[in-house]
């Protein structure tokens, strides 16, 4: 029941920078993984390989899902919302489905921003914008959610609340989730398993199921 299999992956940029060296990793369906480690350790590269945004120099990344509707979405540190569009239009943008609007309103409820459908991104706080970005990432019902430091720019309290909201949603939707974070406490609080990236490889990992919902 592994959702993502990474086997002996190497990634070398421009024939000179080794970003990943012999990384092997299996991620189960529904598992919440945190990738931590120093800057330059290869976390973003691994995430981009899983997202299919880059190819490994050698080795394999396999996504084991037959559901082709919409496999995965990435949420970034910056919200990437279109400032000239309302919240509802930001969520609906790019879809021709008749039910899109209803689905967008459902997701606004899920991220507790039902009253903000007609607001514009500039009228929202940082935390609210990230909740909209999360709703946007969930619009296509992905099976895998990739989170690249999504809470890095938020203040401590907002960050905590967002952690809980993300956990709650990931559990409800049984998402397989990979979170890149510099914050070890955040990793321990959210993840089932923490993977430490060091010297371009996954040098160490720790299971932490007890931490789920702690605090
Ligand atoms: P992290 O996310 O842990 O900070 P990265 O995956 O961003 O690590 O980077 C790993 C290494 O690969 C670093 O040395 C970085 O400079 C290099 N690197 C990352 N992306 C590129 C790229 N597109 N082109 C060249 N080198 C890159
Ligand atoms: P993050 O803050 O998520 O770790 P990075 O700083 O690793 O992001 O990368 C930001 C962008 O810059 C990415 O698109 C990556 O491909 C590119 N990049 C990172 N390191 C290098 C590098 N050494 N040379 C060229 N591009 C790089």
Explain what the structure shows.
- It is a single chain.
- With 215 residues, the chain is an alpha/beta fold.
- The protein has helices spanning 43-50, 87-92, 100-110, 126-138, 156-172, 184-190, and strands at 2-13, 17-28, 32-36, 58-63, 72-75, 144-148, 176-180, 193-198, 201-207.
- Strand 1 and strand 2 form a beta hairpin.
- Helix 3 (100-110) crosses helix 4 and helix 4 (126-138) runs parallel beside helix 5 (156-172).
- The longest helix has 17 residues, at 156-172.
- The radius of gyration is 17 Å and the shape is globular.
- It starts with a strand and ends in an 8-residue tail after the last strand.
- The model has no long low-confidence stretch (mean pLDDT 90).
- The structure holds adenosine-5'-diphosphate (2 copies).
- One adenosine-5'-diphosphate binds next to strand 2 and helix 1.
């Amino acid at each position: 029941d592994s959702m993502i299999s990474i086997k002996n992956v190497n990634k070398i940029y421009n024939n000179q920078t080794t970003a990943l060296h012999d990384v092997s990793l299996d991620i189960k369906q529904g598992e919440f993984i945190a990738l931590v480690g120093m800057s330059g350790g290869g976390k973003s590269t691994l995430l981009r390989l899983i997202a299919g945004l880059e190819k490994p120099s050698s080795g394999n990344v396999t996504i084991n899902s037959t559901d082709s509707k919409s496999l995965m979405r990435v949420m970034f540190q910056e919200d990437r919302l279109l400032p000239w569009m309302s919240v509802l239009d930001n969520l609906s943008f790019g879809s021709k489905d008749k039910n899109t609007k209803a689905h967008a309103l459902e997701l606004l409820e899920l991220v507790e921003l039902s009253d903000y459908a007609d607001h514009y991104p500039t009228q929202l706080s940082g935390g609210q914008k990230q909740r909209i970005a999360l709703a946007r990432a969930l619009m296509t019902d992905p099976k895998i959610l990739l989170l690249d430091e999504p809470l890095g720019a938020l203040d401590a309290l907002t960050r905590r609340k967002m952690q809980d909201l993300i956990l709650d949603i990931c559990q409800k939707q049984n998402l397989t989730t990979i979170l890149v974070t510099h914050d070890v406490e955040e990793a321990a609080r959210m993840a089932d398993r923490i993977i430490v990236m060091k010297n371009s490889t996954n040098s160490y990992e720790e299971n932490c199921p007890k931490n789920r919902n702690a605090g």
